[in-house]
Amino acid sequence: MEFTVSIDIKGKPVAVGSISGESSADARFTYAADYLHATEAVPISLSLPLQSEPFSAEQTKCFFDGLLLEGFTRRAVASNLHLDENDYVQILYQLGRECIGALRVYRKGETPQASYDKLTREQVRELAREGATESAAVVIESRLSLAGATGKVGLYRDPKTGEWYLPHGTAPSTHIVNYPDLRLKP
Q1: pLDDT grade, residue 94 (50/70/90)?
Q2: Quick one: how far is CA 48 from the chain centroid?
């Protein structure tokens, strides 16, 4: 398996490196040589400083697994995707079109596309009422990875019209909606 990791720099995706290995157990992140020599090169994390050598499987897992959702929401998403909840690389591939830090993860050679679905105000309210189990499908559909234990979805609000959109693929979001955890309600 090999996945490209890119970051948005001045509104344009720039390939910074790749994650490769046989599975999540031995996946290793390596910065791209072109990126290392670019004037705008900055580390994607303090834990992954700029270097030409691949990072260990443990260093790779610590950073990239930390970009994913946790707990019940992660189990629900993994179940819907028919993946092992511990297979962080495959889950990241499925959700990593927009990650914290403007990172994107996609298959090598793939060209991710961006699109939006317009939402009514009632659909936005409904999204805010959803619980973690029901929200798993929306999280998968939007391909947005937001770390944490509570279910979340990213939305885009047009600043001129005030209309709301559900981003798909590499389309950016402007707002995060947290879902209530229905298991904790009295």
Answers
A1: confident
A2: 18
Q: Both tokens of residue 186?
A: 């009295």
In a shared domain, residues 91 and 18: yes
With residue 76 as reference, give the H or E element that holds it. helix 71-81
The dihedral through the CA atoms of 37, 38, 39, 40 has a sign that is negative
Are residues 16 and 83 located together in one domain of the fold? Answer: yes
Residues 87 and 158 in one domain: no
Q: Are residues 66 and 135 in the same domain?
A: no
Give pTM, 2 decimals: 0.69
Q: In what order do the strands lie in the sheet with 164-169?
A: 114-119, 164-169, 152-157, 175-178
Domain span at residue 102? 2-107
Cα–Cα distance measured from residue 166 to residue 186, given in angstroms and rounded to the nearest whole number: 31
The token duo for 4 is: 């490209």
Smallest CA-to-CA distance from 77 within 147, 158, 164, 138 is with 138
Which of 107, 123, 156 is the last residue in one of the domains? 107
In what helix (H) or strand (E) does residue 117 lie, and over which residues does it extend? strand 114-119
